[in-house]
Amino acid sequence: MASISALGVGSGLDLTGLLDQLRAAERQKLQPIVAQRTQEQAKISAYGRLQSALNKFQDATAKLNDPKLYQGLTTQVRGDGMTATASATATPGNYEVEVLNTARAGSVATTRVTDSSAALAGPNASLELSFGDGTTRTVTFDEGATLADMRNAINADADAGVNASIIFDGQGHRLVLSSRESGVDAGVTGVSFAGLSDPGALAEDTAARQAGRDAELNINGITITSATNRVEGAIQGVTLELSADSAGKTLGVTVQRDTESLKEAIQGFVSAYNEMKSTIGRMTAVGTDSTSAGELIGDRVIRSIESRLSRDLTDIVPGGDITMMSQLGISLRPNGRLELDESKLDEAIATNQQAVADFFAGDSKEAGLAGRLEDSMKRFLGDDGLIKSSITSSETRIESLKDRFERMERTIDRSIERYRRQFGQLDMMMAQMNSMSAYLSQQFDIMNAQLGRKR
After folding, report:
1. Fewest beta carbons less than 10 Å away: which of 42, 74, 287, 393?
2. In this predicted model, what pLDDT tens digit does every residue of 289-315 receive, in sequence order?
3. pTM over the 0.85 mark
4. pLDDT tens digits along 369-400
5. Cα(72)–Cα(91) distance, rounded to whole angstroms?
6. In the chain, what are the domains?
7. Residue 284's CB: how many other CB atoms inside 10 A?
8. Where do transmembrane segments lie in this chain (predicted)?
C-alpha cells in the first residue's frame, strides 16, 4: 500500500488538529522560562535606572567634596561702566574705584594723496615708526607700491606694532596708523617715510596725531595706572574691566564669599538624594499585578544601598562645630527622604561657613560627609560594585535561560516528530483496516447474493 502523505487521509480522523494541540500543550513548558527571562531583563533595565539616579547623587556629592566650592568668591559692582571678576587668591573686602581715564591706543595720520592708485614707493622705500617707550620699528615697501600696497605691507608685518587703514576725508586719501596695543608706551608717536618716488608725496600730519594713554584709577585713595582697560592685580585676585564710558565715574566693588553657589550645591545634594529615593520607591512598589509591581521588590542590592546610605547620613561627622545634618537644617524623614529648612541653612552658612565646609568636605577627601558618601558610591557604582555585579549576574542568568529554552525547544520538536510518526502509523493501520473492512463487506454481499439465487 502506498504511504499516506497527509495525516487523517487514511483514517478520516483530524490528526493534524490533534498534533497542533499537542504541540501547543508541549510549548506551555517554555512559558516559565520566558517569564524568568522577561523578569531578568526587567531587572537589568531597573538596575540601569538605579545606576543613573546614583550617578546624579554621586555628582551632587562630589560638588560638596570639592574645597574650591567653599573658597569661591563673587564680586558686585555698584554703578555702570566696569565689571569685576574675583579669583581664588582674592580676599573679601569693599573698594571704591574712581576712574580718571581709560586706556586708549595711539594713532597718527598722513597727509592726503589725491590719487590712491599712484605709485609712491621708490627703489628703497621704507617707513620708520616711533613709539612712546622710545623704540622704533621699520617697514619696507616694494618699488612702485601704492597707498593700498603700503597699507597691506604694514598689516602683514607682525612686528610693525600698528594696524593701517585708508580713509577718505573728502579731499584725498590718508593712511591712518593705529597702535595694536593701548597705553602710553605702546602708542605710536610719529612716522617718517624714506625712499618715496616723490619725497613730498607722503608725510605725517602732526595735527592728526592722537597719543596713546594709560588707564588711570584711584582705588581707596591709591592711584593706579594700567596700559590696558583690563586692570589686573590692583586689587589682589580681582580683575577689573573698564568700558569706554567709565571715565569720570566713581564705582563700588564688593568682594565676598560665594554663599549662593554653596547653597545651590546643598540644595542639589538634597534634590538628587530624594530623586534617587523616588526611583527606588517605584522599583520596590508592591502592585496588584505584574505590570504595576516594581521590578526589584525584595532585592538585596536595594536593601544594601538603602541601609548603607541611611547609616552614612545619620552617623556623626567628627572634628568640627557641625557634626550632624540637622544642624544645617537637613533632616531624614520617616519616608526615607531628606527635608531642607532653607532658613536654618542660610543661618549656618552666614555665621560659620568654615564649619559647613568641615562638615561636608573635612580636611581630606575622605574626612567629611561627602567623602564618606563618595566612598559608598564607589562601592555601588565601581567596576566591581553592586550594580554592575547584579547586571552581570542577570545577564548570565539570561544566557543560561536562553540555552535552557533552546534545549527545551529541541525536546519538544523531537516529541512532536515522534507523535507525527505514530499518527502516521495509526493512519496507515486505520486505512488498511478500512480497506479490509470494505473488502470483506463486498465478499459478504456477493455470498449473500449467491445464496439468494440458489433459493
Report:
1. 287
2. 555 677 778 788 889 998 999 999 989
3. no
4. 999 999 999 989 888 888 888 888 888 888 88
5. 10
6. 1-72+261-455 (1.20.1330), 73-102+215-257 (no CATH), 107-210 (2.60.40)
7. 18
8. none
